[in-house]
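so my prof wants the structure for this chain in the tokens format not the other one, which i didnt know existed until like an hour ago. anyway here's the sequence
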Amino acid sequence: ELTKLYELFGAKWISESVQRNLIHRGKVFVTERSKKLEDLISFRLDMLFVNNRGERIENLDEKRIELLRNHFNVYESEGIQCQLIFQNKTISLNSSECSSCALEYEKQNVYLFIQKDLLNLDYIDISSELTRFVYKKPIDSLVHSISDKLSSPLETLKRRGIPVDRLLKIRQQQQSIQISLPISPIKRETNQQKSVEEKPSQIQKQSESSEQQQQQINRRQSQQEFLPQQTTRGFLQSLKR
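here's what i got, hopefully its the right format
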């Protein structure tokens, strides 16, 4: 009740007033662990942001979901740095004091960086970054739900009532659509083949047109030769008269 009273008077939680930025530091690496995590998130993406009935949860940014689907990569980095900004003051923390991963995005690419020295992945940290990226107003309970969906076997999720098969089927259908979409390069190749096939006919047309032009030139020359003959004949006939 006291919390609601504070909210009624416009008080904010400290967590809402503190801006947290996570960034990677040092070199980045593609490892077997980063590949497996990337495949895991991509494979279970349609299960992460739904309720137990398979319905989308509100306040989702659908465009960012598509970025995770099509432009998402996972790397391991030498370090993760956390910056806390509160009332124009910045405090820097390392990964052991803050988070073991950082999600960064620019333009159309999304990158998840994992602390390289970790023995085990922290799915709570991973889910927290995914939730922060996708939801307009992140909810802490969703972090634990997504973490559980990433770390639990599919059979366990099925026993909990999550429509795993239906959601994975939707993913397979989306993949088949994406596979069928890249027809344009093939079309461009066929167009190039057509243009190559059309070149002989174009050359033939050019040769025909050049022959026609030569015939026209010959006609003009014959006409020019014929005109002086006519004029001389007319002049001689006038003298005879």
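also thought this was worth mentioning. The longest strand covers residues 72-86.
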